Amino acid sequence: MSAILPPADRLWWKQPIGKQEWMWIGLAFTWAMIMFVMMIYWHINGKQNLSTETYKSTPEMFAAKAEKFIAENTVRTETDQNIPVVKANDKGEVYLTASLWKWWPILELEKGKTYKVHLFSMDYNHGFSLQPTNINIQVVPGYEHVVKMTPTQSGTFAIVCNEFCGIGHHSMLGRIYVK
Amino acid sequence: MATTYRNCPRTGLQFDTAAEKLMRWNAVVGVVFLLVGGIMALFVILTRWPSVKLLPADQFYLVLTAHGVDMLLVWIIFFEMAVLYFCSSTLLRCRLATPKWAWVQFWLMLVGAAIGNYAVLAGESSVMFTSYAPMMASPLFYLGLILFAVGALIGCFVFLGTLVVAKNERTYEGSIPLVTFGALTACIIAIFTIASGAVILIPTFLWSVGILKEIDALMYRVIWWGMGHSSQQINVSAHVAIWYAIAAIAVGAKPLSEKVSRFAYFLYILFLQLACAHHLLSDPGLGSSWKVLNTSYFMYFAVMASMIHGFTVPGAIEAAQRAKGYNNGLFEWLRKAPWGSPAFSGMFISLVSFGFLGGISGVVLGTEQLNMLMHNTFYVPGHFHATVVSGTTLAFMALTYFLVPVLFKRELIAPKLCALQPYVFGISMGVLSLVMMGAGTLGVSRRHWDMAFSGAPFQYEWPGAAYLMMGLTGIFGVIAVIGGAMFCLLIVGSLLWGKKLDEGKVTTERTPFPPNTVAANVSGHGDAEHASVPGTVVLAMLLLVSFVLYYFVNWKYLSEVWGLS
Amino acid sequence: MAEDNEIPFMQRVLDNHFLLLFLGIAVPTVLYIIWGIMEIIAIPVAK
After folding, report:
1. From start to end of B320-407, where are the E strands?
2. B82 near B26, Cβ under 8 Å?
């Protein structure tokens, strides 16, 4: 029962380590370094790195920009709620607002082009979960997050809210068209 | 009041009778909250099972909040208080420092847990365990958590005080036992956890009563996770200590090397808590250097430590079993292990599930870029059911089977059911976490009431496989709840109706460690004793290969999604 | 019994519980909490 007794050898640090243990420690260390380098490697050579471009903002400030963007770039409206379908402006920017319990507006993007998506929450935390592609980004109120996205497939995509935001959370579904 | 000691006639362990009473009460209250949390679990699972969908949305979020708080905090930390007192006063054969303060710990935690539960069940605080500001719970919710945390902090100080007492009164020679060292690691992480909790929950409480105007949402997330994730790192340290303890008790295993195991714990002390960043990898505003360094526990040193424990625990068991003559082939030592003892089987299933399911998924989930594939999906609870439930809760259950005769002086009732319980619970929980991770890989959200998005302006149809995974989640979730209920009933039944056992002598004299016991002697021989552990090497290689394959499969998957920069 | 000065440095570190407590609080406080808060404070205000 020696794990529950004080070590019998007072100088336990001087006890040599067995070969098999050394081998395993070596493997574990090597694997740890590979995993660490992998994250850095992906920052240099990978094509999927989350942008860190972020600004402190307020609902009023962001709403002004988002409304202007929608007013200038709407191509049509959809559903009986008349949700605007909006294309990117000529700088390739789009504004996507999360609030209880909707993603606003619907975005219309083109495959292969790179967009600057400005994500903002008007109230609580929300979760941008692009399906079925499965990209998930936290949307934190008070912070405007500018994410560069390049759609690689065309089709209709859903934005599920995957951060709990109250009783209507499950009905918070947005849409992105990629042509 | 003089300190009295009891010598357990079955194990030779010595209990300070005041400490013993505290261990019993903390463990019992823990199990009661496990029962409450388990009932909530049943409602959660029956609602997320798409073809059952039992509760309406508001009640679902309410029981989900209660389930999280009761399981992740209340049950586990109450039990950990018992573990801390056991690992200090019992294993060091000394008196518990300030039993009166320890009772303050118990009552503060109990009152805090009761207030917190009341706040949730009254319906004003369905904010989830994470309670992200600016979503506001009733002030009682934060107050309950604060009282609970202050209680736990007092418990940590009693533990540290007891280490000082043991050292000053020279109740042991040299270094503290490895298991106590593991408990010390847990205690250190607990103090960081509780300090972070205080830093964020006290302002949040003041905000909820209107004294503060605003809580920054991102600041809240960073500091809250200093508590929310670290609290699970307390569990890792504690359940690894319990693996070592049960291996020692059940098969007489001794650490392959004190140096290696303790150094692995040292890496935990330094780096394990950095993994709080796992929850913030897909957040705005935090730089990549901060994310990479923290999420990797400073270059994955704590993962390396876990891999070392994952080797040395089965290695110690193998060495002990081989010394007993189970030397045939690679795995006779494992086949002939005491699988009928719930303490051993629970511990071993906990070890394997934690390594293969919880460990691998945790590292993948905590890789900066890969996190975007799984953040806030059902993968996340899948992962932590493999760590906190299959890992921690099952290890605590295993220890409880050992403690009933020792601490409560009762025989276990229905020994056959007791022997079965770890398998029912462990296997169903293992499958449950796998199918949950499967659903998460397909994108299904966590904390989400309705996969059909009723009331949404348009539709999104999940793949059929996602519904299959959620159906399996329902089935195995119910079996796991049954396994958990078996545990609660068997333990409570044993405490009430188990045959009373001889409690041994109670004296005012402390009995020192028996000098030169056989076990103590052989552990001193170091390398000469180094048994070869080929079976463990094979198991460890299997873990590494699964780890590497699964890791790179996820990178492949990531490379196929939209470009992000 | 070994004299205290024969005890290797790392063993003395691992036997020094309050040093471990200090390190276990200091490392995450600096690398995670303080650095994290600095990151948040450094976020610029939107135009």
Report:
1. none
2. yes
How far, in Å, CA of A152 to CA of B16, rounded? 67
Mutate to test the interface with C, among A15, A53, A56 (most CBs of C within 10 A): A56
- Interatomic CA distance for residues B86 and B220, integer angstroms: 35
Given a contact cutoff of 8 angstroms between Cβ atoms, the answer to whether A66 and A126 are in contact is no
Q: Give residue-wise pLDDT tens across range B128-152.
A: 999 999 999 999 999 999 999 999 9
Contact: C23, B263; criterion CB under 8 Å:
no
Residue C11, domain member (yes or no): no
Distance separating alpha carbons of residues B166 and B163, to the nearest angstrom: 5
Residues 6 or more apart in contact with residue B4 via CB below 8 angstroms = B16, B17, B18, B506, B507, B508
Closest CA to B101 of B19, B10, B6, B201: B19
What is d(CA B204, CA B131) in angstroms, rounded to the nearest whole number? 10
Contact B166, B94 (CB under 8 A): yes
Residue C30 lies in a domain: yes
Task: Indicate the residue type of B397.
Answer: M
C11 touches chain A (CB under 8 A): yes
Percent residues over pLDDT 70 in chain B = 97
Among the listed residues B205, B90, B188, B92, the one whose alpha carbon sits nearest the alpha carbon of residue B145: B205
Which pLDDT band, with edges at 50, 70 and 90, does B521 fall under?
very low
Please state the rounded mean pLDDT for residues B100-108: 98
What angle, rounded to 10 degrees, do the helices at C17-28 and B178-208 form? 40
- Please state, rounded to an integer, the average pLDDT across all residues of chain B: 95
Which pair of structure tokens corresponds to residue B97? 């420092």
What are A129's two structure tokens? 């979960």
Instruction: Tell me which H or E stretch contains B113.
Output: helix B99-121
Q: Find the farthest-apart pair of alpha carbons in chain C and give their distance in angstroms, rounded.
A: 70
ipTM of the complex in this document:
0.96
pLDDT for the residue numbered A2: 80
Nearest to A116 by CA among A91, A83, A143: A91
| Of A130, A140, A152, Cβ closest to residue B221 | A140
SS3 B103: helix
- Residue B277's nearest CA partner among C31, A41, C40 is C31
B415-B348-B312-B324 Cα dihedral, nearest 10 degrees: 50
Q: What is residue B437's predicted lDDT score, i.e. its pLDDT?
A: 98
Q: Does C37 map to a domain?
A: yes
Walk along chain A (179 residues) and give the pLDDT tens digit of each residue. 489 999 988 899 999 999 999 999 999 999 999 999 999 999 999 999 999 999 999 999 999 999 999 999 999 999 888 999 999 999 999 999 999 999 999 999 999 999 999 999 999 999 999 999 999 999 999 999 999 999 999 999 999 999 999 999 999 999 999 99
User: Is residue B477 a contact partner of residue B88, using CB atoms and an 8 Å limit?
Assistant: no
Amino acid identity at B311: F
A65 → chain C, closest CA residue? C47
Do residues A102 and A174 touch, judged by C-beta distance below 8 A? yes
Average pLDDT over residues B527-546: 87
| Count of residues making up chain B | 565
Domain that holds residue C25: 17-42
Q: Which residue of C has its CA nearest to A14?
A: C8
In a domain, C29, yes or no: yes
For C6, which of A11, A57, A62 is closest by C-beta distance? A11
Contact B144, A175 (CB under 8 A): no
Give the number of domains in chain C. 1
The model's pLDDT over B427-458, given as tens digits with 9 standing for 90+, comes to 999 999 999 999 999 999 999 999 999 999 99
Distance CA B368, CA B381 (A): 18
| Helix (H) / strand (E) containing B484 | helix B464-497
CB neighbours of B85 closer than 8 A, spacing ≥ 6? Answer: B19, B22, B23, B26, B96, B102, B155, B158, B159, B162
